[in-house]
Amino acid sequence: MAAGGGKLLSVDFEVFGRVQGVFFRKYTKQNAKKNGLVGWVMNTDKDTVLGQMQGPEDKIRIMKHWLSKTGSPHSTIDKCEFRNERTVFSQDYSKFSVKNEYY
What we know:
Blueprint: E1 8-18, H1 24-34, E2 38-43, E3 49-56, H2 57-70, E4 76-87, E5 96-99
Parallel strand pairs: 2-5
Antiparallel strand pairs: 1-3, 1-4, 2-3
């Protein structure tokens, strides 16, 4: 269980739109850390941003909204897809990191 008794979730995400070259990964990492989430984020060769986040259900919900509606200051989000949402009993990562290679 996560702190506060909520479920611990893991969610994969992909963000579409103007999300590369606008510091989207940097802001994603900052917001994930602020919300106590762990995981990773990276650019893809399809001009999208891909990632995985893990943490308390309520914080995942906050981050989903940020990824879908807010993003970095100069980004334009067309859509955000969330996949493979599942309950986990422990986190696979110790921090939230930016990966630099393409997927």
